[in-house]
Amino acid sequence: MDVLGKAVKLSEAAEEVATFYAKMLTHDYTTMEAFNKNFFKDWRKVMTSQERELITDLKKCDFKPMNVYFTEKSEERKNRSKEQKKVEDFAQIYCLIDCNSNNDYNGVCIIYHSILCL
C-alpha cells in the first residue's frame, strides 16, 4: 500500500483490513463519506502505534495497487482450465474430527496443497 506516494509495509492485521477496502474500491461505498469515516476509525483500531503515526488520513492512502493485484488474481482464478480446477479441488485439506462425549475433539488434518477445511 502507498501512503503519500511511498510504499508502506503494514502489520498483518492492518493489511487484512486494508485488503478489505482495496477490494471494495469499485463499489459505491468507498465514495461515501460516512463509510470512509467509519472504515478509517475501525482500521486505526488494528494498526500498530507506528502505523497510526504514519497513516493519519484515509485520503492520503492509495489502495489502487492492492486493488489491481486482487483484480488480477481474481481474473486468473476465473480463467483456469478445467484440469487446473480439478487438481485444485483435489488439493485441499480434509479435516477428520474425532469427537467424544464431552464435546471435545482432536483434529487431524491431511494436507494436500491449499489451506481449506471441509
CATH class of the largest domain: Mainly Alpha
> What class, by secondary structure content?
alpha+beta
CATH structural fold name of the largest domain:
Arc Repressor Mutant, subunit A
Count up the helices.
Answer: 5
Strand order of the largest sheet: 2-1-3
CATH level-four homologous superfamily name of the largest domain: Yeast DNA topoisomerase - domain 1
Strands, count? 5
What is the H-and-E element order? EEHHHEHHEE
Question: Quick one: biggest sheet?
Answer: 3 strands, antiparallel
Query: Share of helix among residues?
Result: 40-55%
What would the average pLDDT be, to the nearest integer? Answer: 79
- What is the CA-CA span between the terminal residues? 33 Å
Oligomer class:
single chain
Q: What's the gyration radius in Å?
A: 20 Å
When the domains are counted, the total is 2
Assign an overall shape. Answer: elongated
CATH architecture of the largest domain: Orthogonal Bundle
Uncertain segments? 93-101, 103-118
Strand content: 15-25%
Overall description:
The structure is a single chain. With 118 residues, this protein is α+β, with helices and mostly antiparallel strands. The chain has 2 domains: 2-78, Arc Repressor Mutant, subunit A, CATH 1.10.10.41; 81-118, no CATH class. The protein is 47% helix and 15% strand. The chain is built from 5 helices and 5 strands; from the N terminus they run E-E-H-H-H-E-H-H-E-E. The chain has helices spanning 12-23, 33-46, 49-54, 64-78, 82-90, and strands at 2-3, 6-7, 61-62, 94-99, 105-110. A 3-stranded antiparallel β-sheet has the order 2-1-3, with no helix packed on it. A two-stranded antiparallel sheet has the order 4-5. A hairpin with a 2-residue loop joins strand 1 (2-3) and strand 2. Helix 1 (12-23) packs antiparallel against helix 2. Mean pLDDT is 79; it is low at 93-101 and 103-118.
